[in-house]
Amino acid sequence: MSRRKYLQIPGPTNIPDRVLRSLAQPIISHRGPEFEQLVADCIEGLKKVYRTENDILILPSSGSGALESAIVNLFSPGDTIAAASLGVFSERVALIAERHGLNVIRITKEWGQAIKPPEIAQVLADDRGHKIKAVCLPQNETTSGVANDLKAISQTIKETGHPALIMVDAVSSLACMPLETDAWGIDIVVSGSQKGLMLPPGLGIVSVSPKAWTLIEQSTMPKWYWDYQIIKDRLKTNQFPYTPPTSIFFGLKEALAIIEEEGLENVFARHKQIAEAVRNSSKAMGLELFAEQGYESNSVTVICLPQNVKYEDLERLLYEKYGLVIGGGLQKLQGQIFRIGHLGLIHNTDVYAIMCAVEAALVELGYQVELGTAARAISETFLPI
Amino acid sequence: MSRRKYLQIPGPTNIPDRVLRSLAQPIISHRGPEFEQLVADCIEGLKKVYRTENDILILPSSGSGALESAIVNLFSPGDTIAAASLGVFSERVALIAERHGLNVIRITKEWGQAIKPPEIAQVLADDRGHKIKAVCLPQNETTSGVANDLKAISQTIKETGHPALIMVDAVSSLACMPLETDAWGIDIVVSGSQKGLMLPPGLGIVSVSPKAWTLIEQSTMPKWYWDYQIIKDRLKTNQFPYTPPTSIFFGLKEALAIIEEEGLENVFARHKQIAEAVRNSSKAMGLELFAEQGYESNSVTVICLPQNVKYEDLERLLYEKYGLVIGGGLQKLQGQIFRIGHLGLIHNTDVYAIMCAVEAALVELGYQVELGTAARAISETFLPI
Questions:
Q1: DSSP β-bridge partners for residue A107
Q2: For A13, which residue in chain B has the nearest alpha carbon?
Q3: How crowded is the C-beta side of B4, counted as CA atoms within 13 Å?
Q4: Average pLDDT of chain A, as a whole number
Q5: From the list A77, A201, A243, which residue is nearest B245 (CB)?
Q6: Which helix (H) or strand (E) holds A66?
Q7: Distance of alpha carbon A317 from alpha carbon A336, whole angstroms
Q8: pLDDT at position B348
Q9: From the list A7, A32, A65, which residue is nearest B27 (CB)?
């Protein structure tokens, strides 16, 4: 079936034709001047997206791999960290840290709830001996469709005077929602290629503050592949300690150019408007959103399944009849919710296609809603009236 | 400059147009049935290339990352291994192992020399307490252009009766020269996507024997991203614990189909004949080969630089005038040798282009050789006379 597909999982995302074509270029030497220039251009562009002057490191890995790299570089066995646990992916960071011998103070929230600044402030206040080396949290948790107020949280952490670093999982938020690495003082920002950056999976990306480097120099955790000091040293000449996935760098340069052409603020505004249209049309159809009000993600919307609609039926119908791929509930949310990713390559017109297909499929599966409801709510969101 | 490039470093290699085009397909869900089928097909195809019934694991990493993954999965801190050190890449395995707290008994050879079965037998015989958990060696060391006789070595290790596992770095030899994982009893075979498999870099590949799994179950080394048990568990349903680089899998399936169409034995024969042509033409030009006679690699030929020819001049001239990218000497071999990769996508006609350009460039740089010498030696290698 060669129809156009709507890949609306919370990443990997659809990617622009310009990027796809750039991936199909003949392979170049990873030790030559052409690749070195490409790396330099990519890092310069990433700094603009990260809004940072910190070092940017690129890793041949998934986003989870990049999160593990941060753990093994920043800490030593026996160190203590505080970690928000709001869903599968933030809990994974806590799990990886424990696997590597850290003491993890979890700040656990019911899935669907955001973590609030006072909750973190309390954990830091209780830590009078300043044992906590870092606070780890996701900007966006795709399990539940919740976006934390990272600006307020980082400000609160600074105000406590506690010296803990701030480490943020921005895998599903970078280039989707505002993230001011330097202005907000985020020491470690971890992301990946396959979400807001509109690339295939294959690159992990990490920004590292000077304060983080101090911790990194003290780390005794065994490592070679992940070793930021080795990587940073080679990056001085835009090289890597091993063979990096060169092809994706062609795509990264192209994707960064696309983002720059649109303007980062416009990218954020587009994601915001599209997310509102998805939420408004869902609510207009009588569907309940899973995320806490006021903390809904602009990357992914998590929608409670109506009674009597089975997830498998909805998923199959959307895929087979409409070429639309949605995400299901993870772990305990399986069969309870469905997830619509709206990040990366997505524009206003696409929202009609996606949400009208969802409406039609729900109706076909017995859900009662007047046809056209979703489209009307989307237009009401978009139109200046 | 849009001329055709000859990327003749020891990998990444040139890759077929069919593979390049397959990389430019729209992104698919890494959790959907289409990708699961793709993974199943790729693993089935890889088993044929690996000549194994062992488990095949695919990692989102470089080849060095896959080597690190083997170290952290097989061993525990304080364990002892024996590691051949013949060049930069085999020494790297020893280094990674030491970084992770292993005792490494190095079997060090002068660069350019192969490791011989009796040398390994002696190390194992000296280890009366059977402390050595594994013998690590490369099938092919690209630093020096040396290929070890893996068949003889593995047979010798078996004959000693020592229970050590055999772990082989086949990054630059898989699908280039014969490797019988099961018939030779190799427990761990590590490879990558960007060499004989004719793909962009981005995938590490490891085969794991039942005997290796026994050791893996006892390992106390901290890990999550590299954890073979987690990966194996998810691979039961052709899934991954994280987002794998889906696009390269399209390419992998295509590359495996290309290899199957040619026939693995024919792929090996082609590499052997091309390597002979490169060596014969080099010798005909009066150039000295760096590798020990009888152990020259069929993936990469390392050639001593003639006196009065500077590597930088040769590299620049070949690149600018002929679009030919060669490799230089690593570490202490810098300025002493040059390396021609002839693995993956390369056929007989290409050898004329490569070696005649080398001949012409050397002559332009003052080296004395009769023009046409290389071509004659290549034809003499190819022709059945």
A1: A84
A2: B27
A3: 8
A4: 97
A5: A201
A6: helix A63-74
A7: 17
A8: 93
A9: A7
User: Who's near B158: CB < 8 A, 6+ residues apart?
Assistant: B185
Q: Rg (Cα) of chain B, in Å, rounded?
A: 21
Chain A CB contacts of B191 below 8 Å: none
Q: How far is A158 from chain B (nearest CA, A)?
A: 31
Token pair belonging to B93: 């395995």
Which band of pLDDT confidence, cut at 50, 70 and 90, is reported for residue A384?
Answer: confident
* Strand locations in A298-377 (E): 300-304, 324-325, 327-328, 337-341
Cα dihedral across residues A97, A89, B35, B199: positive or negative: negative
Give me the amino acid identity at A361: A
Give the nearest chain A residue to B224 (CA atoms). Answer: A96
DSSP A289: B
Which pLDDT belongs to residue A4? 84
Task: Decide: B124 and B132 in contact? Cβ < 8 Å.
Answer: yes
Contact A201, A194 (CB under 8 A): yes
Can you give the pLDDT at residue B360? 96
Say if the Cβ atoms of A20 and B21 lie within 8 Å. no
Dist. CA A334–CA B142, nearest whole Å: 49
The segments of chain B whose pLDDT lies below 70 read 1
Distance separating alpha carbons of residues B126 and B327, to the nearest angstrom = 39
Distance CA B204, CA B171 (A): 9
Closest C-alpha among A210, A247, A206 to residue A227: A206
Q: Are residues A31 and B245, on separate chains, in Cβ contact within 8 Å?
A: no
Residues of chain B positioned with their CB less than 8 A from the CB of A64? 224-225, 241-243
Domains delineated in chain B: 6-12+264-382 (3.90.1150.10), 17-260 (3.40.640.10)
Residue in chain A nearest B330 by alpha carbon: A31
- Cβ neighbors of A228 (< 8 A, separation 6 or more) are A57, A69, A73, A206, A208, A216
Which run of H or E residues covers position A278?
A: helix A264-284
Instruction: Indicate the helix (H) or strand (E) that contains A190.
Output: strand A188-192
**pLDDT digits over A85-113, tens only?**
999 999 999 999 999 999 999 999 999 99
Q: What is the DSSP string of A91-156?
A: HHHHHHHHHTT-EEEEEE--TTPPP-HHHHHHHHHH-TT--EEEEEEESEETTTTEE--HHHHHHH
Q: Which two tokens stand for residue A141?
A: 């948790």
Considering only CA atoms, give the Rg of chain A. Answer: 21
Cα gap A90→A133, rounded to integer Å: 17
